[in-house]
Amino acid sequence: MNNDIEKTLYSAEEIKAAAHRLGMQLTEDYRDKRPILISVLKGAILWTVDVMKEMDIMAEVDFIDVSSYHGGLASTGEIQLIHDLSADVAGRNVIIMEDIIDTGRTLKFLIDLLNERHAKDIKVCTLLDKPEGRVVEAKADYVGFQLPKEFVVGYGLDYKEFYRNLPYVGVLKPEVYENDN
Ligand code: PRP
Ligand code: MN
Ligand code: MG
């Protein structure tokens, strides 16, 4: 698996430092607010876990599974809700946990859904923000790294459902997906 990676963009150590920095910031901003973290499956699994461990406040966590890439290289533009939340978000301070904001479509879908359900306040904490990829307006409040225009895998991010278990974020060797299409 590691030999499919051309280069590392963010090492495990750099990601850990980002989780620490944002966890401290969230601790300060959400003291006494009892927020609910909404982890967006599957990509945000590792990021959610690492940031929440750095938050020294009372916080809930819940999961929603949405998919638009269906494992591939480009957003299909169509968001599917695969598994819904179990919590009621009405009146709650919500923090959406994402691995990456690219076209912004997934985030827009989630924000619209949470607004319909009368969340009190919605903020977004993402490991990676790729502003150049935007197709719809979407903004993250807490950002680990600004990502250049690259297709990346690892630390939750997949190509055809694999590479999520890499402990770092990296760029795939072109031959890995060229051979595949
Ligand atoms: C990826 C990623 C984000 C979303 C970002 O999820 O984890 O949730 O796409 O892209 P966007 O800004 O263009 O909408 P994906 O649909 O691949 O599902 P996954 O998390 O299960 O891999
Ligand atoms: Mn995702
Ligand atoms: Mg994916």
TrEMBL record:
Its cofactor is Mg(2+). Residues 8-160 form the Phosphoribosyltransferase domain. Pfam families: Pribosyltran. This is Hypoxanthine phosphoribosyltransferase. Transmembrane segments: none annotated. Its EC number is 2.4.2.8. It is found in: Cytoplasm. GO terms for cellular component: cytosol. PANTHER family: HYPOXANTHINE PHOSPHORIBOSYLTRANSFERASE, HYPOXANTHINE-GUANINE PHOSPHORIBOSYLTRANSFERASE. The gene is hpt. Its main location: cytoplasm. One of its GO terms (biological process) is GMP salvage. Keywords: Cytoplasm, Glycosyltransferase, Magnesium, Metal-binding, Nucleotide-binding, Purine salvage, Transferase. CDD domains: PRTases_typeI. Purine salvage pathway enzyme that catalyzes the transfer of the ribosyl-5-phosphate group from 5-phospho-alpha-D-ribose 1-diphosphate (PRPP) to the N9 position of the 6-oxopurines hypoxanthine and guanine to form the corresponding ribonucleotides IMP (inosine 5'-monophosphate) and GMP (guanosine 5'-monophosphate), with the release of PPi. GO terms for molecular function: guanine phosphoribosyltransferase activity; hypoxanthine phosphoribosyltransferase activity; magnesium ion binding; nucleotide binding. It comes from Furfurilactobacillus milii. Pathway: Purine metabolism; GMP biosynthesis via salvage pathway; GMP from guanine: step 1/1; Purine metabolism; IMP biosynthesis via salvage pathway; IMP from hypoxanthine: step 1/1. It comes from the Bacteria. It catalyses: GMP + diphosphate = guanine + 5-phospho-alpha-D-ribose 1-diphosphate; IMP + diphosphate = hypoxanthine + 5-phospho-alpha-D-ribose 1-diphosphate. Belongs to the purine/pyrimidine phosphoribosyltransferase family.
